[in-house]
Each structure stands twice: as structure tokens, then as C-alpha cells.
Amino acid sequence: MHIDILTLFPEFFVSPLGCSILKRAQAQGILSVACLNLRDFAFDRHRVTDDRPFGGGPGMVLKIEPLVRAIHWVRERRPQVQVILLSPQGRLFNQAMAQDLAQQESLLLICGHYEGVDARVQYFIDTEISLGDFILTGGEIPALAIVDAVTRLLPGSLGAEDSAAEDSFKDNLLKGPQYTRPRDFAGYTVPEVLLSGDHQRIARWRRHQALRRTWERRPDLLLHARLTAEDRAYLATLTVGEGQPPDSA
Ligand SMILES: C[S@@+](CC[C@H](N)C(=O)[O-])C[C@H]1O[C@@H](n2cnc3c(N)ncnc32)[C@H](O)[C@@H]1O
């Protein structure tokens, strides 16, 4: 997959793209990323990319001409590209959207800044995505979040053990608790079942923990989860205000 990021601050991405899974995915040719400087698409003498809003008001607005020039430039080279504007007014990003985006050949992520972008950009993009109901300084952090979430889903990016298949939100369930050594820390012990070596029992316990966590923390997800009859039977044993989980191993 190829991802272009259109930004006024390409340097923002240097460090995150240069470490961990994003670095490895690029080294393996699974992912390529190009940070395009919006200023390079401003052709006036001072390469101006922003201007005061019509009608008055605070702050600056990103100008339409450099934005659209950059979009055309990318579309000419990648006709299949999905053009996405990062915006707090877009659709809320989630794992299902990450899965859809991971199927694309190429993405263009447009980072707004200052007071935002000239609204006419809507005629030149495919969709708007929001990272959440809060206002960030620019679209760089949301763009990076999307690159990261999508890259995890590209085949081979996580190495031989494809842990994305077990991540939270896969099939609308949260992942259950995880433990590593030591077995006992300050009296807090690891659930005995995980030390049993009984893989069937462990798998059943993990499924129950995932169901339980989702029920406790994000019951809204359960409405869309694919549940077996056994899952439903287990969920039926959980009641509000109950102290300990029923024996789920
Ligand atoms: C300071 S914000 C502009 C907010 C705008 N004045 C408003 O009230 O909707 C500047 C840019 O940051 C990005 N941005 C800020 N918050 C975001 C969010 N929650 N999700 C996605 N992008 C965001 C967008 O690209 C936006 O154009």
C-alpha cells in the first residue's frame, strides 16, 4: 500500500515513521509513505498556503488552490487513490474503517491546520475522517493514527504471528487481560488457568474474558458482535453489580 500525506509539517512524521512496525513495514516493501509539503503546491512568489477567512473571524484558513493542485498531482499518479481529509467534522474513525482502508491500493491523507481548510475542498475529496470529538492543532496526529492502524492490518506487517487477528475491536469485542512474568507480583497473581497448559481451557477462558470486558466497558459493541450460543449463555450469567466473575474456565 502507498500513502501520501499532505501537510505543512512533513518533519512531524520523520520519527514515528522511522521506528517499530511502521519502519519495518516500509523496509519490507509492505508500505510506502510520502510526505508532501503543501507549500510545494503554492506557486505564488511567497508560496502562501493560508489566508484570512472571508466574513472575518480569528485565525487563518488553508487556501483551496494549493490543496486542489496537490490532490490532482496525486490523482494523476495514482488514479485509484482514496482522498481523505482529516477533520473533526468527519466520520469517527474506528477499526472497521481501518479494515476498509487497508483494502485500498493507495490513500491521500490531507492534514488541515490553523482554523481549517477552505470548505470547497469537499468537491475534490472522497471522505472526511475524524479521530474523535476533540480539536487538535492539525491533522498530523490523526493522519499518523490512521497510517498506524491501517499498517497493522496489512498482511505481513506484524511478522509471523499475526496478532492483529486477536486485537480489540476485531469482531466488535475487546481483548481480555494479558499477563507476563512474574507469576506473583506484590500478591497479585496470574489466573491459574493461564499456567495450566490446557489450551482448550485457556481459549475458553480468554473468550469469556473478552466477552466480560466488552460487557463491562463497551456494551454498545456487543450489539454488533458475532456471538455463538455459548457466548450468549455466558453473557446471560453476568449481572450488573456482581463482584466476581462466575467460574469461566
Ligand atoms: C484546529 S483544527 C480546526 C478546527 C475547526 N476550526 C473546527 O472548529 O471544526 C485544524 C485542523 O486539525 C485537524 N483536526 C483537528 N481535530 C481533529 C480531529 N478530531 N480529527 C481529525 N482532524 C482533526 C483538521 O485537519 C483541521 O482542519
Which regions have little confidence, pLDDT < 50, spanning 5+ residues?
none
For the CA atoms, what is the radius of gyration?
23 Å
For the termini, the CA-CA separation is 41 Å
Number of domains: 2
**CATH architectural type of the largest domain:** 3-Layer(aba) Sandwich
Helix content: 25-40%
H/E element string?
EHHEEEHEHEEHEEHHH
Q: Just give the CATH class of the largest domain.
A: Alpha Beta
The proportion of strand residues reads 15-25%
Biggest sheet, open or closed, and with what strands and sense? 5 strands, parallel
Count of extended strands:
9
Assign the structural class, choosing from mainly alpha, mainly beta, alpha/beta, alpha+beta, or little secondary structure. alpha/beta
In round numbers, the mean pLDDT is 95
Bound molecules: S-adenosylmethionine
Gross morphology: elongated
CATH superfamily of the largest domain: SPOUT methyltransferase, trefoil knot domain
| Number of H- or I-type helical stretches | 8
Summarize the structure.
The chain has 249 residues and is an alpha/beta fold. The protein has helices at 14-17, 20-27, 64-77, 95-102, 140-152, 199-217, 219-222, 229-236, and strands at residues 2-7, 32-37, 50-51, 61-62, 82-92, 106-110, 127-130, 184-185, 188-189.
What is the topological layout?
Layout: E1 2-7, H1 14-17, H2 20-27, E2 32-37, E3 50-51, E4 61-62, H3 64-77, E5 82-92, H4 95-102, E6 106-110, E7 127-130, H5 140-152, E8 184-185, E9 188-189, H6 199-217, H7 219-222, H8 229-236
Parallel strand pairs: 1-2, 1-6, 5-6, 5-7
Antiparallel strand pairs: 3-4, 8-9
Bound molecules: S-adenosylmethionine (SAM).
